[in-house]
Amino acid sequence: ILSHDYKIASPGVIEVANNAQVPYTISLDGSLNVSSSNSSLFIDVEGRHTVNLTIQDQLGYARVQTIFILLDTTSPSLSLIPSTQSYIGPNSTLNVTVGENIANITEYTISISDGIDTCSNTYTEASFNIQVTKSLDEILGISCGLNSSVIATYSLTLRTMNEVGRNSSVQFNTSYYGSHAAAIIVGANISQ
Length: 192
Prior knowledge:
The protein has one helix and 15 strands. By secondary structure, it is mainly β.
């Protein structure tokens, strides 16, 4: 048995890598309980499975090896919510929530774009649930080609991927105010 880790995004066949030189059968115990006369096993039970794989050749030799199989057919859930609903600026923050029930989130990317230039940051993870706050200033960093002092409509995007390769994204447009006129307070000193 040459591989001990199998990750798939939809029900299907996994090929058990082995170096058997004579005909053999393979079988899995536990929650998967399947067998085959070749190296192909059909997996259709969603979840994280640590099972014993038995390979037995026609000469009577057998080997048992513990393997891990992950089947996740759903994409991660996610939300990207700015700290202020109507307008954002360089000091604004974004509330990021990403969730998964079966496979770990491996990465998420936050992007901001004016339709021509795009700036993004990718964060590596290994977690089922992520709840973080990121600043726009962090995304509009030093190497970003967007002008952070303009007034424009920007597109914000959150993309995420889990360990079986399933991904999700959410995108929305928002008014960005990189600068604005200074506020002036006008009034009179009133006393009674």
